[in-house]
Amino acid sequence: MNETTLKVEGMTCNHCKAAVEGALTELDGVESAIVSLQEHRVDVIHNDKISVKAMIEAIEEQGYDVNA
């Protein structure tokens, strides 16, 4: 398993947290996603099947900006 940390701008509440975590955990290859609202980041545990690009796109589809 790999761990990737992505900086996510625009998350302010538990709804934001749930949207980002849900979008990521629906992706094939993502084991878990844990958002830190205070640090504006998400830590993703995943295998090699999923690309960072795909994770970023899933977050951006929810309306948030990502800085890899």
Automatic annotation (TrEMBL):
Gene3D superfamilies: 3.30.70.100
Domain of life: Bacteria
PROSITE patterns documented for this protein: HMA_1, HMA_2
One Pfam match: HMA
Localization terms from the record: Cytoplasm
Domain annotation HMA: ranges: 2-67
Keywords associated with the record: Chaperone, Copper, Cytoplasm, Metal-binding
Protein name in UniProt: Copper chaperone CopZ
Species whose genome carries this gene: Exiguobacterium aurantiacum
